[in-house]
Amino acid sequence: MSFNDEMFESHISIASSTMKRSVIRELLKLVEKPEIISFAGGLPAPTTFPVDELKDIVTTSLSKYGNIMLQYGSTEGDSRLKRLLLKRFMDKTSVKNLNENNILVVSASQQALDMVGKLFIDRDDLIMVENPSYLGGLSAFRAYGAKMIGVDLEDDGINIEQFEEKLNKIYNSGKKIKFFYTIPDFQNPAGVCTSLEKRRKIIEIADKYDFMIIEDAPYKELRYEKEDLPYLYELDPSGRVIGLFTFSKIYCPGLRLGWIIAHPKVIDKLVIIKQAVDLCTAPFNQIITAEYMERGLLEGRIQKNIELYRKRKNLMLNAFEKYFPNGKGIKWTKPEGGLFLWVSLPENINTEELFFDVIKNNVAYVIGSAFYGDEPKYNSFRMNFSYPTEDKIEEGVKRLGEVLKKKLS
Ligand SMILES: Cc1ncc(COP(=O)(O)O)c(C=O)c1O
Predict the structure, then answer these.
(1) Is the pTM of this model over 0.85?
(2) How far does the centroid of ligand 1 lie from the alpha carbon of residue 220, in Å?
(3) Ligand 1 near 258 CB (within 6 A)
């Protein structure tokens, strides 16, 4: 019998038959034309990549450690990298009691999200997510059959009353949630930061209802204004917070390198899961990154990223003021860090439909409805300001403004 769709579909798992291609990746294909100015991706600026430093580090490291860089490594991760990451975390936070049993090196955060899904979710389990939330996280959890309950995101984090109301309803009906997935700092997609008060409240509520918290923190170190806030991990004495960290936005996404900090029992299980996923994260990438950190280069790199992205973010906000129609009910977040901001139009405007007008004007955003765990809203879109250069930001927002003016006139 030759290969055909029907035959193929009859063999695949229920989980994969319900999987859809990422809307963002599909839309990104449309925006690949050179004439389009895209605010749709979430890429760091390539000028931030430390190409010259890495050239030297790769050459010297290969001479010194070639036999381990090109060999399989331990699932837990390279010891030097783990030590450096733990020390850095303890130096920068109030947490002082971590050791090697609290950390697992992963092939970036997306892998961590998948492994967390595998660790906690049985089909039809309930989890809670911010509405909107990171699409890659939602897709990872959906693949394990999670039922997602969304909590509305406000300018300072989730709506706490709604969170408690929804939890009450769930627990009163004899059910429970496995975890709450949150991106407290400069959230993807909305760019908002959870206030200290709400962070404390989230920990308190998790304790009361007894669920785990997945704290996804890829943007935490990219703060452009105001004071840093503590990680949820720091505020939780119970060990229910699992912290996900990545080098992708502060160094290079192409190395696919991240780490998880959590209670040793959690790490232990995740190690077993990772063994079946990829055995280990590429030792090559771990060793050159440890060398990069040991040479003291990371802090300077992050500072330069902050300066560049702050400038681009302010430029985008100024361009919104200049080119978006006034008094027509358009609102946008004003992020203090991260790579994204979130634009909301009047409720009768569907940004999926508007996308085709926007593309015709050679500019692109990501439609907001893709980012909801449940009950999508259709009047928002996400804008990235880290990748487009300054002149493209000005011109692209101008083009977007023209479409919005026409639509809202
Ligand atoms: C909130 C969030 N989590 C995780 C990831 C995945 O990042 P990576 O796998 O590159 O570490 C991203 C990427 O954009 C993200 O925005």
Answers:
(1) yes
(2) 12
(3) yes
